[in-house]
Amino acid sequence: MEDHLPVLLVVVPLFSALIAPLVGRGDKPWYVAMAATWSVFLLSAVLCARIYGIIGASGDPSAFISYAMGNWALPWGIEYRVDAFNALLLLIIAAVSAVVTVYARLSIAHEIPADRVNFFYGLWLLFFAGLLGVTVSGDVFNVYVLLEVSSLAGYSLVAMGKYLDRRALWASINYLFLGSIGASFFLLGIGYLYSATGTLNMADLSERLRSLHDSRTVVTAFVFLLVGLGIKMALFPFHIWLPGAHGYAPPIVSALLSGVAIKVGAYVMVRLLFSVLGIEFGFETLPTRPILLAFSSLAILGGSYLAIRQSSLKRLLAYSSVAQIGYITLGFTLANEDGLTGSFIHIFNHALMKSGLFLIAGIVVYRLGTSELAALRGLGRRMPFTMAGFTAGGLGLIGTPLTAGFVSKWYLVAAAIERGQSFLAAVILLGSLLAVVYVWRVVELIYFEPRPESSTQVREGPWSLVVPAWVLIGASLYFGVDASLSSSMARQAARALLGPG
Amino acid sequence: MRVWELYNYWIFILLMMIGFYTIIAKPNLVKKVIGLSLFQTAIFMFFISLGKVEDGTVPVAVSFATAYSNPLPHALILTAIVVSVSTLAVALAIIVNIKDAYGTIEEEEIHKAQED
Predict the structure, then answer these.
(1) Could you give the number of structural domains in chain A?
(2) ipTM exceeding 0.85?
(3) Nearest to residue A123, comparing CAs of A246, A240, A256?
(4) What's the rounded mean pLDDT across residues A416-421?
(5) Residue A433 belongs to a domain
(6) Which chain B residues touch A152 with a CB distance below 8 Å?
(7) What residue in A sits closest to B86 (Cα-Cα)?
(8) Is this model's pTM higher than 0.90 or not?
(9) Identity of the residue in B79, B91, B98 whose CB atom sits nearest the CB atom of A170
(10) Residue A418 included in any domain
(11) Which residue, A159, A176, A442, is CA-closest to A307?
(12) Residues in chain B closer than 8 A to A155 (CB atoms)
């Protein structure tokens, strides 16, 4: 049983996804989803403890657990490989999804017709299975297939937002077209890699690619893979699908999309750059670094600026995610230990903060039926816990001291200065200032403006929604005060990728 | 002529670009989906042509064969076709919903309806 942990992470939600639509109406599909997400959370925690135990015992930062699917000999069979880096990401995905699933019951019953709820949970688990599969797989083609499993479920989940606002359908079809183009580029890149090396296993690929650094086929493959993933992770300028999709999807779907799905795209990019192609090829052969740094800087500044101009809370948070992806790519593009550590901590912290904030937006939608900023006037008194949650999460996005955002930005600034790129440090600080503006706009509305006389009475959100949202926000505050756990795990992950050199 | 020896790549690039153009330029959503399908199929043809071995036959052990084509790209593409069919199914399902909600599947008319 213990040896099968890596594959169970994918198999459990995959089969639950088939069961959930069949168990009938009411709360039953939700119980299936709860059982699946929480058991996966436990499994991933066990797996995480094991891999960090192995690393601690052997002293080798790049130690890994390998699992041969169906016991086919590697590298011909599909390999599932867990090291310090993806163990951390698996834990985040599982933890955030488990908490969001608790929140889902009331929120989904409110937003989706009763005869569609079972299908919603089926898609939800499929989406979850795909995200975990992409993260755990060590085979590039398997990554493509699971990326599409999660994306296809994601398009349908975004379209489920149609019960609140028909614009969700338009957002969903746009997401589908761009996502499919991105996935096709990724597939094409895999084809070029395969034609140059004859293998699909990541570890085997990295061995064989060492002698092929001058090959134009490999360079072409690299460009296709990078553009494809850029679209999937919504890296500026490929972000245009994101605000619509994250803005009109049901709030819990946005929480998972913004919190973890785009990070999984970033994960695959890091994996390819560092583990498969190698830092030398990834950053020296082609001008990848200046290009990615320029894109990240534009993402940070452009995303934050556009967030200021939004008139709806969910779209504001969506544009803020565009900016946060910029911080993540900026960190790993610097390719030093601080940069990678900062990037991974930011993946971790932002998953908590942004999922929490989307859940807060979900409470607003639950009570008011809209997330338009104008409707939020004076809500601070009516919904004190919800709005305090927004404020705490918003401070995290800004990166004020004692919040998790501060820790990640600290590492990123340190990494930029170590590389002698003080310009980038300035970009990070300017991005934080812009974040002050977009968070303050909302805070001012909810606390310092009177509730319009004509507006209907609003009460605090139900506890089963407020508590999960606060669990995520609270966790982000905790990791802001005591960052020793998150930063030591992120540092291990960075060392696993940089290797002994 | 080396350029013509690689005609399989030219064909796949041409098909792919026709598909890509259709996705971007056509205002009708169903036509965009057709373009997407063409785009993905072109990549499948690239994979299949990678598996071709000169004078190779189908990878089934027979006495007269001297070389076999590589079956792995075929197996990969079988999977990718399933992904592509699912994408088409999801896309068409969303388009049916768009038709219900907006009464049209033309991009510009939907934009106009969004602004109202």
Answers:
(1) 1
(2) yes
(3) A256
(4) 89
(5) yes
(6) 83, 86-87, 90
(7) A152
(8) yes
(9) B98
(10) yes
(11) A442
(12) 90, 94
